[in-house]
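Figure S7 source data.
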Amino acid sequence: MLSNRLLDAINAQINAEMWSAYLYLSMATYCQDAGFSGIANWFEIQFKEEQDHAMILVKYAQSRGGRVTLKAIDAVPTEWKSLLDVFENTLEHEKKVTAMINNLMHIAVDDKDFASQSRLQWFVDEQIEEEENATELIHKLKLLDGNGFGLYQLDQELAARVYNTASPLVKE
Ligand code: MG
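Tokens for the predicted magnesium ion complex:
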């Protein structure tokens, strides 16, 4: 059994992952409207991956006999100053998510809940990638410094990103 404290935190995390999905969908529409359909594609895939993260937690809570309770998803920002602003916001958000995941892991360690620690390790590892991706794109945008041809090439590069289910854990 999951402790009540851990189950509450997992339910809060499910909501946070759905909020992340909503945030990235909003960013995708912003990028599409700005004429960057490749960057919009990159955010649409983020949108799907965040839903996968929520589902992994739903399946995990259920597999441990925990009751999943879904709460309202808060509104997300809809406007940004620039593409750089979008990715800086992404990194800032992912750092908050990392802190939440670390908090979940703290509770699991405190509870001596080894199964939860094992499942949460997947999220700990995933957050390294999330922060790394956003940092890399911020670096590229700063290098380009608004160069039109460079931005066109970056848009082409991100258009090539293909969605794969985040993990087989979404079905477990
Ligand atoms: Mg996530």
